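Data availability (excerpt). The following record was deposited with the supplementary files.
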Amino acid sequence: MYSAGFLWISVALVASAGGSPTTGDGRIVGGEVTTIGEFPYQVSVQLNGQHICGGAVIAHNFVLTAAHCFEVALSSSDYTVRVGSSEHAGGGEVLSLRQVITHGDYNPQSHDNDLALLILNATLNFTEHLQPVPLATLMDPPTANTRLVVTGWGYQAEEEGGVSGEVGVSPELRFVDVDLVDSDQCRRAYRHVLPITQRMVCAARPGRDSCQGDSGGPLVGFPAEEGPARLYGIVSWGLGCANPNYPGVYTKVAAFRNWIDAQMGTWGWNGLLAGWIGLQ
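Predicted structure:
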């Protein structure tokens, strides 16, 4: 995860700076190489052709990611999304963005409401390597039996060169299993850093975490029994990567269902109106 400071992005910077959260672009720590066929909702969010964050396909025209990935005021045309590939630098398709909608209450200091909806300039054709992930609701929280998995191309260690001399983001998609951390336990861990709000969820496992470069990527739960996987979290922030004292902090997707549904509905309605106008 990012060290505390960036929201997963901010997180990494803050930790290295001496204790407060920072932004970073994190990568999977303690994980394993995988393929897009296993996690077909994963995308790479790119700035001027370079991977900066992860994201999750949630519908034919929409990707969900973190607001902190867009703190720099740039045009939507500077960003693209690569879908359907196990590598962030090649394969699949690269799509431009019609619009970046960051949550209006996103707070870069507290990392609260760290959510952004990307509207693609194309309608996705779903295949075995490109599928949407269903969104969690407050009615179906993860349980102790839910397998939680984070995916991304982020750093494999908090310090560059920390894993067999590797530097930078991972060229291949990786995944790591993490465990849900009790909210009160997470609040205690970060009590001298930042508040853990009801719009955040924490997860960790010894030696395993998301890190810089994983920001905006999906925390997905796979039920022990039959049932669909669900998107529970978006990689947001944390203090260090795989720091045993500080769990990873994720934006709680279920807390934003009304906002997500409203944004998607507004876009669809506006598009329909535009179509009517064009026919007149």
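Summary of structural features: The helical segments are 8-17, 183-189, 257-279.
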